[in-house]
Amino acid sequence: MALYADLHRHLGGSVVPRVLWRYFQRHEENLAERFPEYAEFEEFYTRERTSLDEYLELHTLVESVQTAKTLPYFIYRLIRGAYIFENLAYLELRYTPYYRTDEHLSQSERIEQMRSIVEIVGLASRVTEYPIVTGQILCMHSRLPYEVNKAIVDLAVEMGDYVQAIDIAGGDSHYATRLDEFIGLYRYALDRGLKTTGHLYETRDGCYPELLPYLQRIGHGIQIPLLYPELLPELAERKQCLEVCPTTYLKTGTLESLTQLKTVFDRCFEAGVDIAICTDNAGLHNVRLPFEYENLLTLDVIGFDQLQACQDAAFRHAFAWPYGQRPASLLTGLLSVTNPKLPLYQ
Ligand SMILES: [Zn+2]
């Protein structure tokens, strides 16, 4: 069995529609009344949006029910689904901890509460019966003030047992006026040993070359090979990896067809830039990681060799995977031990 790694998955978008709808029926009277039928809810939840901003609005629906009290409920189901249906051996979860705190508290109290949110997510991700190596990435957010984003970076540094990296999210068109601020925060994070990724070059309005030198991985980054391929040698030199999340670009209206990704993969392979294929919001899209792989193969965007290279890259660029190789190499070892006289089919 092949085991996979997903490097880009949002906690908010990771709840599959069936789990969320059932949660409403059990615990949220108002939302249960708004969506009495599952089919109607699934249609609303997973339909394509016309822009990234409209798509991100949907996250607030999930964020409103993911609180300190309910997070273990959702994370247990997330880990169970990832283990059973997606064969994940490794998963990095990302979220903005501030948006999981109690909105009735003051800003400083909410900052204080972020610590327990990180702990709850970390503990809930360790499920004995569904073992997956997990990591956390804390997202700064373009809608949050500097003090909160700085507190998010500080928290990531302090909680190194749970958190490996920081990210910037909230729609890449909104960073323009605060670029210096975000560069400063990334510098601050790198100086303190944190790893970095960032939602960038996802849309045509989110292309900021100034931020690139501070990122170890690039969240999406598809506009680089599409519009600015001249930047690719720099990315290869810095050993940066693109986190490409195919279904997202259809749901946000960024691409019309996944076949447009062929240029992204071809140019990156040619330039020696790694790509990890990820889900972004597997629940919101109702598309799990193996189906992202299969869709790309079916549409001839990539072949099996390229898929394997991307799967290898995912483990290589994982922030919290403690081994040099992907888990399949361990199974290959076991396979030759079972009957060493038989050759392995090459
Ligand atoms: Zn994302």
From TrEMBL:
Enzyme kind, highest EC tier: hydrolase
Keywords per UniProt: Hydrolase, Metal-binding, Zinc
Domain Adenosine deaminase: residue ranges: 5-319
InterPro entries: A_deaminase_dom, Ado/ade_deaminase, Metal_Hydrolase
Classification via Gene3D superfamilies: Metal-dependent hydrolases
Known EC number: 3.5.4.4
GO MF assignments: adenosine deaminase activity; metal ion binding
Transmembrane parts of this sequence: none
The keyword Transmembrane helix is annotated on this UniProt entry: no
Cofactor(s) needed: Zn(2+)
GO BP terms, alphabetized: adenosine catabolic process; hypoxanthine salvage; inosine biosynthetic process
UniProt GO cellular component terms: cytosol
Protein family per UniProt: Belongs to the metallo-dependent hydrolases superfamily. Adenosine and AMP deaminases family.
Record's protein name: adenosine deaminase
